[in-house]
Specification:
- It is a single chain.
- The protein is mainly alpha-helical and 104 residues long.
- It has two domains: 33 residues, no CATH class; 68 residues.
- It is built from four helices and no strands.
- InterPro entries: Spore_GerAB (IPR004761).
- Keywords: Membrane, Transmembrane, Transmembrane helix.
Length: 104
């Protein structure tokens, strides 16, 4: 049924599960040793709030620019950046988005 050895399957699934949550676990471990816990909680809350607002802003921008085509694209942010063209001043913004996607 499975052509992949169980060890490799478990290693890959572990890596896939750790990738999005590894940073959060590391920061939560550090948060336990903060001298003033209320300031630490406040900083974490502000960070989560700002990150959430940025993600909502990106989703709204993509939906506003691409409309019904948004779910079709694999990288809608890149396509949205291709659409941006403000005269001769702000062009080829997708290069910055591509560099960001490659380096992450």
């Amino acid at each position: 049924m499975l052509d992949v050895p169980i060890g490799k399957l478990l290693w890959t699934s572990h890596a896939t599960a750790i990738f999005p949550f590894g940073d959060a676990v590391a920061f939560l471990m550090v948060l336990a040793f903060v001298n003033k816990p209320e300031k630490g909680r406040s900083a974490v809350f502000k960070g989560v709030l700002i990150a959430g607002l940025v993600l909502i802003g990106v989703a709204v921008r993509n939906a506003a620019v691409l409309g019904q085509m948004n779910p079709i694209y694999t990288y809608p942010t890149y396509i949205t950046a291709q659409v941006i063209d403000v005269g001769d001043v702000l062009t080829r913004v997708e290069v910055l988005v591509a560099i960001n996607l490659i380096t992450m």
